[in-house]
Write a structure and sequence with these properties.
This protein is of the alpha+beta class. The chain contains four helices and eight strands, in the order ββααββββαββα. It has one domain. It starts with a strand and ends with a helix.
């Protein structure tokens, strides 16, 4: 029997407020902007990607996560503004992206697919519940249609 494991997700405020330590920033100035962005997320205790469901099956593959994209504010915004080549990070808009896809591995058919972007975490939580319900429904239908 295929079971869907539900993971706990806590969506944080999609803003980076705390700046990186100046010594650390100097060390990563030669790095790509994505590396510096990840450091800001770590400094502010924000998880960029959180899985909300998983499945253990050789027949099905499930991708189900919420990605948080953060905007900059406060001290972090001032710090980024003062470093010319990092200013493109200020273009990032705060939002949550939910992605959920269920595939049948032997046929490579996509049985369910959902992608939504929103600023409101409540909309994302509601959509997660809808996705879980739909996937459970699809898995129970598929199980009932299998003939031995």
């Amino acid at each position: 029997m295929i079971s869907l494991q539900i993971e706990s997700v806590k969506l944080t405020n999609p803003y980076v407020f705390n700046k990186i330590d100046p010594k650390t920033l100097r060390r990563v100035l030669d790095s790509a902007n994505d590396t510096v962005y990840q450091l800001y997320l770590i400094t502010n205790g924000i998880k960029e990607r959180q899985d909300f469901a998983s499945i253990e099956s050789a027949e099905y593959a499930l991708t189900a996560y919420v990605k948080t994209e953060c905007g900059f504010s406060g001290e972090a915004k001032k710090q980024v503004w003062n470093v010319t080549h990092l200013q493109s990070l200020l273009l990032k808009k705060p939002k949550y992206t939910l992605r959920c896809e269920l595939k049948h591995i032997p046929t490579n058919n996509t049985l369910y697919k959902c992608r939504i972007e929103h600023k409101n975490p409540e909309k994302i939580y509601d959509q997660m519940q809808c996705n879980i319900f739909e996937i459970n429904h699809i898995l129970s239908e598929t199980k009932n249609n299998i003939t031995i």
